[in-house]
Amino acid sequence: GVLDRFSQIQPKLVFSVEAVIYNGKEHNHLEKLLSVVKGLPDLKKVVVIPYVFSRETIDISKIPNSVFLEDFLATGKGDQAPQLEFEQLPFSHPLFIMYSSGTTGAPKCMVHSAG
C-alpha cells in the first residue's frame, strides 16, 4: 500500500485529503492517514486538504504534526496565503515519483524528471 511505497523515500511532507467519494459513498481516510504517518519516522508535517467534509467537522488532532492546507499556506507570509511562484529548474530535476504495481515483489519507485 501507501506505506510500502513511501517508506522507500521517507518523505518529510505529506499532503492528503481527509476523505474521498467512491461509487457514490464517502470514505474517510483519516485512520489510513494516521497509520501511514506512524510508519514514517522522518515525517515533519502532514497537510490535510478538506475535500469531502468541511474543515469544522474534520478532527485531525490524532494525526501528529498535522495542519489544514489553509493554515499551512498562511505560515508562508504572516496571515496571508503566499502566492505560488514559478521557479525554473534544470531539465533533469526530479518532478514526481511513480511506483510499479509490486506484483513481482515490493513496489519500485521510478523518478520522472521535469524535462
Structural overview:
There is one protein chain. This protein is α/β, with parallel strands linked by helices. The chain has a 3-stranded parallel β-sheet with strand order 1-4-5. Strands 2-3 form a two-stranded antiparallel sheet.
What key phrases describe this protein's structure?
acetoacetate-CoA ligase activity; AMP-dep_synth/lig_dom; alpha/beta; 115 residues; AMP-binding_CS; single chain; two-stranded antiparallel sheet
Nutshell version of this structure?
The protein has 115 residues and is of the alpha/beta class. 20% of the residues lie in helices and 28% in strands.
| Amino-to-carboxy terminus distance | 29 Å
- Helix and strand run: HEEEHEEHEE
Report the average pLDDT across residues: 91
Taking pLDDT < 50 over at least 5 consecutive residues as the criterion, the unreliable ranges are none
Q: Give the helix proportion (percent range).
A: 10-25%
Measured on Cα atoms, how large is the radius of gyration? 16 Å
Structural class: alpha/beta
**Global morphology:** globular
**Which range does the strand content fall in?**
25-35%
Q: Give the strand order of the largest sheet, numbering strands 1, 2, ... along the chain.
A: 1-4-5
Specify the biggest β-sheet: 3 strands, parallel
DSSP helix count?
3
Number of strands: 7
Per-chain topology:
Elements: H1 2-9, E1 13-17, E2 19-22, E3 25-28, H2 30-38, E4 45-49, E5 66-68, H3 69-74, E6 94-99, E7 109-113
Parallel strand pairs: 1-4, 4-5
Antiparallel strand pairs: 2-3, 6-7
